[in-house]
Specification:
It contains 13 helices and no strands. By secondary structure, the chain is mainly alpha-helical. The chain binds one RNA strand through helix 1, helix 3, helix 5, helix 7 and helix 9.
Length: 230
Amino acid sequence: VITYTTLIDGFCKKGRVWEGLVLVAKMIRDGCHPDTVTYTILIDGLCRVGTVDLGLRLLAQMRLVACFPNIVTYNSLIDGLCKEGRIHESLEVVAKMIQDGWPPNKITYTILIDGLCRVSMVDLALGLAAQMRHVDCSLDIITYNILIDGLCKVDRVEEALELADEMTRDGCFQDIITYSNLIDGLCKVGRVDSAFRLIAEMRHADCSPDIISYTALINGLCKEGRVHEA
RNA sequence: UGACGUGUAUCAA
């Protein structure tokens, strides 16, 4: 089972879910029965290629063969729905998972926060983040980065910068993604010079800018007409 | 021995 499942995961990670499905058929013929992990990988793969509805169908099918979803299965579906902007349905899945005995974990929360940010519902995202603490899921660097990016994308760069300070106080070190988010946000509100300063600060923080950080900055310069500096 | 969460640009619609 594990050998087959590993291969299926390989296909899914390459966006070749279809071949993964073919392989499941083969493993069954071989007398190996797909388990929860196998199904979860396929559901996740289907979600990634933009076919969440097929993922939901596969969820129904796995139950028929007495294979039951776990938290990863649910998280994969919630992420798929969120990435399509289907927040309402993702919350329905959350309700189901709770009924099913799987309370949301840190990843569930982070997925939802990301989903809310993607549809610009940043205040709700911040609210969820506050709620996370109450169920003693601490925010980690990924959650912080998502919120910082969300704030930047709605031009609330000042709040994003404050949150970046807060994450440091909280013991999460800003990484290359945090900085890139801020640089991009600053550029988009026309504060290219502050973005420049952040690039310098990155080196001091032992976090060298990469191609993405530079692209954000160069783009900002170009949009300002500062092509030469770019 | 196997599964889930974060960043830039361009083009497209």
